[in-house]
Amino acid sequence: MASGSRGANTHPSHSSGGSNARLTATANPSQTPATATATATATATATATATATATATDSVSKAVAQYTIDARLHAVFEQSGESGRSFDYSQSVRAAPSSSLPPEQQITAYLSRIQRGGHIQPFGCTLAVDESSFRVIAYSENAPELLDLSPHHSVPSLDRRVEPLSIGTDVRSLFTPSSSLLLERAASAREITLLNPLWIHSRASGRPFYAILHRIDVGIVIDLEPARSEDPALSIAGAVQSQKLAVRAISRLQALPGGDVKLLCNTVVEHVRELTGYDRVMVYKFHEDEHGEVVAESRRPDLEPYLGLHYPATDIPQASRFLFKQNRVRMIADCRAVPVRVIQDESLTQPLCLVGSTLRAPHGCHSQYMANMGSIASLVMAVIINSPDDEPSSLPGSSSRSATSMKLWGLVVCHHTSPRCIPFPLRYACEFLMQAFALQLNMELQLALQLSEKHILRTQTLLCDMLLRDSPTGIVTQSPSIMDLVKCDGAALFYHGRYYPLGVSPAEAQIKDIIEWLLACHGDSTGLSTDSLADAGYPNAAALGDAVCGMAVAYITPKDYLFWFRSHTAKEIKWGGAKHHPEDKDDGQRMHPRSSFKAFLEVVKSRSLPWDNAEMDAIHSLQLILRDSFKEAGGANSSKAIVNGQLADLEMQGIDELSSVAREMVRLIETATAPIFAVDSEGKINGWNAKLADLTGLPVEEAMGKSLVHDLVFMESRELVDNLLHRALRGDEDKNVEIKLKTFGAQEAKKAIFVVVNACSSRDYTNNIVGVCFVGQDVTGQKVVMDKFVNIQGDYKAIIHSPNPLIPPIFASDENTCCSEWNAAMEKLTGWSRGELISKLLAGEVFGSCCRLKGPDALTKFMIVLHNAIGGQETDKFPFSFYDKNGKYVQALLNANTRSNMDGRAIGAFFFLQIASPELQQALEIQKQQEKKCYGRMKELAYICQEIKNPLSGIRFTNSLLELTDLSDDQKQFLETSISCERQMFKIIKDANLQSIEDGSLVIEKSEFLVGNVINSVVSQVMILLRERGLQLIRDIPEEIKETCAYGDQCRIQQVLADFLLSMVRCAPSENSWVEIQVRLTPKTTSHGTPTILFLFRFACPGEGLPSEMVQDMFHNTRWSTQEGLSLSISRKLLKLMGGEVQYIRESERSFFLIALELPTSQNDNMES
């Protein structure tokens, strides 16, 4: 089907025709359960990186293998004669390639034929010149005739002598003086292609041409395409009009609802057909296994549809794909036309490279294919997106940076049933449209990828939760199951000799046979994935039929396995055309879309869809988690010691470092020279630095607690700020938003302060959003000047060229996108003078060649903004970056405003640049570094919380075993204490969301318990520290209190009491000191007559006890400076949620906590109350 793209297609067999099996890494036998699980959760990024590296290596291997196959079959086609009639297309696709590599000269001939074929299409002519001397080193045979230099065209005269065309001719002598100047100017440009096309005229006849230039290894190639004198695109205005049509189509693409790639593709084919007038336009997508599919089509009603057709990967050879990444638009005006030979200097060591030529002739194979399908002319445009990994799809030995960072996603292919040649400006506009389409497509694909990753992560989380609560078989017997993790037709678990199948799966005898084969052939690996069990070497694959073709398996233990199965690809394939039945007759020797489709179905017979990288990452992560879950819980007591000892140190160390980072951030914010402020989740100010207080006249202490939306911004900014807050509290951080702040006190005369802000979501250590921080730049001075400038009706030049530092960098465009203004501030910013840039094209020459942009996407986005502004659609705060004359990288915000005449007609556009001040840049960099540190600490804490669950599961399991043994009363009491502590820790980990504690939404889980069990658990948590410090524990607890039954959240009560008691133990004097526990109860009755008990706990020690800052932290709602203070603050809030109160009392000789908590005596009493 590579209708517009088969540069030299020889229809070799499908690239995935060989085995596509992948083995995963061998496990480390010495790895402990905790380490294995840590690998599963903490090294997800490393796993993804390793997978990406493996994928890149795999892509290299596939690309090299495909080159050799293409080369071998290219030789077969060449030997079949000029017509290619003896070349059996179907047989070539179905035949498996031999394992021996073709001769080196065969590959060299193949690549040379495609890149250096020595022929061009006859609708134009080609010249190649030495860059330094402009001497001709090659020319096409039709060049003298097209340039009117042949004897019967040329009329010599004394005043205008035209030098005949030959090797060594000065090319400047062939064109008019003005055209020669254009050629010289282009040759001196850094990026010569940005100036295309040049409008030049033959000196002999004045005939106009589009000159399209590009550099090669030996000089400059000039492709000349004749232009009709009446062609409106000959003028700059005409070329701009073509771009405006493309911009109009781009605007429609951008207006489409998100999340629908199919709608986007359907829309783009309609617009391309409207723009170019071709009979058929298709979007051709490359799948991960390199085969192609038509996913969208717009056609003339009488043409046969190709929508839904799939084609082998070799329909578009690797070499052709490489060419599309170098030359993104390829036009064939007439596939039946006889190619024209290129004559070149004999001193050249090899044929001229025509990779970048717009006139390069198609290969005979491709011409035959087009003729067979009734397509005479074609236009093919590459759709290139950002590659998620370094996908090496360029030619072997190529070092093109763009080739490794960009991915050829697919093609937009246009067909016409008669000869058709569209002018270069319109093709350039189509390329512009394709770049914008690729940007939009890339965003949609990224969104789809994120949604897929979220689904996989959610499913993994639910499966892991099942493992913690139930037996491992829950992942196949409950919902969701392992089938929900990746796309598959069936799945299975083989566990302890039992088989648990789901969906379309092999029989039990067959799965045992597969396991025997895996152990025999792949026993040293940890898994295998393949899209064809037959190609992977499984001897009994035929017995499975088409139902099970592809398989992914993860080894959990030497006897336990997880399987996922996929059926053959053909059942997924549907063609929207009328003739899609596999038995439809077609000439197998004729290259035709239906032949390609049948060849594809033949290739993928007994083959499933391939397993993509994200799916294998998900399987691998689940595999690592399951390994740990399946292991017997050995060494549980030592695990408990680790949890009670090292865990506390890790958590406290993490919190301490996070506290240090937070304090440093507060200091930086308060002293920053850029305006910075912050709000809590309710939109109330909780941060207001000195710079902002100085700008607005509102002191810090008065700003605290005020509503940002209702108290501090003007009415016209309220909706904007409210939306900004709402989005940031959801995690959507907007940049470069201008808000209008009120002024107060001494600054009230200023009336308003304009600040451009970046919104940054503030998160706690559990990664929950608790507020928003705004880092801004004061643009009040620039705003006033710009408003006056935009509204001025008279002479504006005095303002534009004023040296006043308040005047921002300004440049302007006329209606033809040429630079019409370039003020002093722009000269200073870029290093380019006004005289050097006036009248040059803003997109391409000014920004592109002079001020280099970073990547092709940047130029596309700027062109959209430029044309939108000329068309009346203004743009504010567009991020714009470029390199100045000295190579310094400049980052700015671009404001584009329509420029109109007195009648209101748009005559161009004004552009203002806002440059971030050094102070703001420094503040943003500091904020970025601090956020990075905070995020790192949050990740570590989240990791610790996750990892604690596994040894705790071991402790829980061990405790359950101990409960079944014959224990003494003391041992039973010890076991009860251990179980209470284990439950307390599980609850702390499960409810790590501090926000629910802060806002009072935490659910208190109540049950009946003995007070004595709580006291034993609390005391057990301080005993090690008591012994280390040599302190005496004094217990003043009546025995009847220990036997008292109460109704409440036992684990939360333990947590709170343990925190307060540990604080006293830490702060007690170390010399001959003590800590006292006193418990008293008072029976009470509620107003409803329900009996309750008021418990009074007193934890005391001699001396001053807690430091004053720790006490302040405990009673402060928003700030804390010590890790112990944070813990006490949380415990105080938990106690309040349970209806209790705490006081800290310092007397002359001792200090103590006094904790009051009233609880019902039973569940029935609680219900009555």
What global shape is seen?
A: flat
Helix content: 40-55%
How many strand units? 38
The share of residues in extended strands comes to 15-25%
Report the end-to-end length measured between terminal Cα atoms. 78 Å
The Rg value, from CA coordinates, equals 38 Å
| Order of strands across the main sheet | 2-12-4-3-7-6-5
Separate helix tally: 37
Mean pLDDT level: 76
Q: Can you summarize the main beta sheet?
A: 7 strands, antiparallel
Low-confidence stretches: 1-20, 24-57, 82-101, 154-159, 389-404, 574-590, 632-648, 790-795
SS content category:
alpha+beta
Task: Describe the fold and architecture.
The longest helix is centred in the middle third of the chain and has 46 residues, at 424-469. Helices cover 41% and strands 21% of the residues. The strands form 8 sheets. A 7-stranded antiparallel β-sheet has the order 2-12-4-3-7-6-5. Helix 28 (918-963) packs antiparallel against helix 29. The protein is built from 37 helices and 38 strands. Strand 23 and strand 24 form a beta hairpin. The radius of gyration is 38 Å and the shape is flat. The chain has 1169 residues and is α+β, with helices and mostly antiparallel strands.
